[in-house]
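Final report, closing paragraph on structural work. Over the funding period we assembled a curated collection of sequence-structure pairs, and we close with a single example.
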Amino acid sequence: MIAKYENKTLPGGLRVSAHKYRDLQNLPHWHMEGEIIAADCGSAEVAAGSSVYSLEPGKCMFIKSGEVHHIRSGRGSVISVIKIDGDLLGSAFPNVSPKSPLTDAPEDLFRSFDRLSEEISQGKKYCGIICDAIALELAAGILRLSGTETESVQNCASEKYKKLLKLISEKYAYITFDEAAEFMKFSKPYFSKYFNRMSGMTFTSYLNIIRIEKAVKLLNGSKLTVTEVAQRTGFCTIRSFNRVFKELTGFTPKSLPKDYIFIKAADSPETERFDPTISGPAVV
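Its predicted structure, as stored:
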C-alpha cells in the first residue's frame, strides 16, 4: 500500500468537494488539495504538521496543501470536510498560510458547505465557477480570522516522516521499531512519542494496519494458505496473525468475505488513488 499520498479525487473535473463523515478515522496522509475540516457535532483530534489540535464545534481546521495530517473523531461525531484544489488556493492566496491550522469557524461555514453540496449534486451549468467562488470566499474568511504568515520551507522532520511512511509501506514485512527510529535519527523514546503524535497510533498499531491490508489482498487474490500469508506479511506466529486480523477486520482469515476491502488503496504507482479512511463512511 502506498503510504500515504492521497491523489486528487475531486468529482467530475471540479476543483472543490464537500463530504460529511460519521466517526471519521483515517491514516496519516497528504494531498495537493487544501482541506477545511469542521465538527458538526462531537469532536475530533486532528494532527497537522507536528502538532495535535482538538477540534470542537465552533472551530475549524485549515490544512495546507502537502501537509501530513490525520483525523481521529469521537464516537457519534459528524465531521464536514471541504477539499479545494491547491492551484486554485495558490492563485488566490499566493505564498500565505494561516498562522494556526485551528481557528474560529466563520459563521457561514456550514451554510457554505450546504451550498457546495447542492451545487455539486445538481451539476448545473457554471457549477464549477460557483463552487470555486464559494470555496474561495470561505477560505478568505478563515484566513481573515486566523491571520496569515508567509509560507516557509517544510520542516525537515516532516519531510523525513513522509519518507518513513513510504519505507514502511515497502518493507512492512520486516521493518522494526528500532530501524524506524534509526531512520528518523531519533532516540527510541522520542521516536515513540513523535510517531504516536504524528500518526495518532503507536508504531506497532500502524504497522499492523499496513500488514493486514496486504494480507486481505493476498487472501482474496492468491492461492496462498493462511500460514503462508501470515509469514509473507511479517507475523512471527499464526496465532499472532489470527488475533490481529480478527481485531482489525472483525473476521478470521478463513471466514473473510471474498469482496471484503480493508482499506481502499492502490499498490502502485503513487499517482494512483488512495483513500486514507479506515472507518466512518461518508453520510452525504
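The longest strand covers residues 34-41. The longest helix spans residues 127-146. We thank the funder for supporting this effort.
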